Amino acid sequence: MAAQKVTVTVLSEMKAKGEKITELTAYDYPFARMVDESGIDIILVGDSLGNVIQGESSTLPVTMDQMIYHTRIVARGVKRAMVVGDMPFMSYQASTAEAVRNAGRFLKETAASAVKLEGGAAVAETIAAIAAAGIPVQAHIGLTPQSVHAMGGYKVQRQEERLLKDARIVQDAGAFSVVLEGIPAPIAKKITEKLSIPTIGIGAGVDCDGQVLVLHDMLGLNEGHVPKFVKKYGNLAGEARKCLEAYVKEVREKKFPGKEHSFGL
Ligand code: KIV
User: Fold this and answer.
1) pLDDT score recorded for residue 132
2) Looking at ligand 1, which residue's alpha carbon is closest to its atom 3?
3) What is the gyration radius of the CA atoms in the chain, in angstroms?
4) 44 within 8 A of 25, measured Cβ to Cβ
5) Which structural domains are found in the chain, ordered by start?
6) For residue 62, is it left (φ>0), alpha (ψ between -120 and 50) or beta?
7) Is residue 165 packed enough to be buried (19+ CB in 10 Å), middle (13-18) or exposed (0-12)?
8) Which residues does a 6 A CB cutoff place in the pocket of ligand 1?
9) Which residues of the chain have pLDDT under 70?
């Protein structure tokens, strides 16, 4: 693991050397610190916060101001990883000028050094304009949650030709990497072999250049439905529940606070 700050150059070199790239989401300062100190390469302040922080049923209600707030507090806890701010629904679709202005807010108002946005050929011009403004862009193709209604649900995307074309187009538009979400592993492998920029998979098999997961899913903090591609590395919700129930019990039984937590006794 390189000790240096992770930049687009570092990530490109990692792909060239065949070193796997690690990416996770974070939404607040304490977790951002822990994730960064784990040695992760990229921290994505994902609009998945709509689901795992706000309790919404999709990412669609998330606003630019909410993303700026979360990206600012995450970046404050990060020393080494690249921080990527996720562009929320309708922050980049209406016009290229608005997209560039909103992408710029992440770099101006937070310490993020890149943005992510969803889509393939349809957002090529937007990616090119943001990249031309000097803002690194992580693209995101395949299962794109902001298009849940257009896709008819959260479904694995299997149209190989379109996926290969989208991947090539976002690379040519200037993206520094691309998230491949919900894509059959053999297609993701083909895309990874054909692209010069790193591919980061989520539900896209082991052959991508790197992997990303939603933090609350992989820590077992999200007690709702999690997709098949999530591996739970722990059960933090279970641990939290144990602590909370112990506190409630001890207060009711007058066991807390004890002498050691009191003054003048
Ligand atoms: O919003 C998010 O967390 C994401 C990742 C799942 C890639 O887009």
Assistant:
1) 98
2) 46
3) 20
4) yes
5) 8-234 (3.20.20.60), 235-265 (no CATH)
6) beta
7) middle
8) 25, 44, 46-48, 86, 140, 179, 202, 212, 214
9) 1-2
Residue type at position 88: P
Q: Which residue's alpha carbon is nearest to atom 2 within ligand 1?
A: 46
Q: Which residues contact 6 (CB under 8 A, 6 or more apart)?
A: 41, 42, 80, 81, 82
| Cβ-based neighbours of 45, under 8 Å, separated by 6 or more | 25, 26, 27, 67, 70, 71, 74, 83, 84, 85, 86, 112
Residue whose token pair is 């591609």: 229
Residue 1 has a pLDDT of: 60
**pLDDT given at position 2:** 55
C-alpha 55/C-alpha 202 separation (Å) is 21
Give the separation between CA 44 and CA 177, rounded to whole angstroms.
Answer: 13
* Burial state string for 81-111 with b = 16 or more CB within 10 A and e = fewer than 16: bbbbbbbbbebbbeeeeebbbbbebbbeebe
Residue 96 alpha carbon to ligand 1 centre in Å: 22
Distance of CA 213 from the midpoint of ligand 1 (Å): 7
| Active site (catalytic) residues | 181
- Exposed/middle/buried for residue 4 (C-beta within 10 Å: 0-12, 13-18, 19+): exposed
Q: What is the atom index within ligand 1 of the atom nearest the CA of 200?
A: 7
**Distance, CA of 71 to CA of 53 (rounded, Å):** 14
**Probe ligand 1: pick from 202, 216, 231, max atoms within 8 Å of CB?**
202
Residue type, 97: A
Regarding pTM above 0.85, the answer is: yes
Beta bridge pairs of residue 137: 115
Amino acid symbol at 17 = K
∠ CA 51-206-223, rounded to 5°: 25
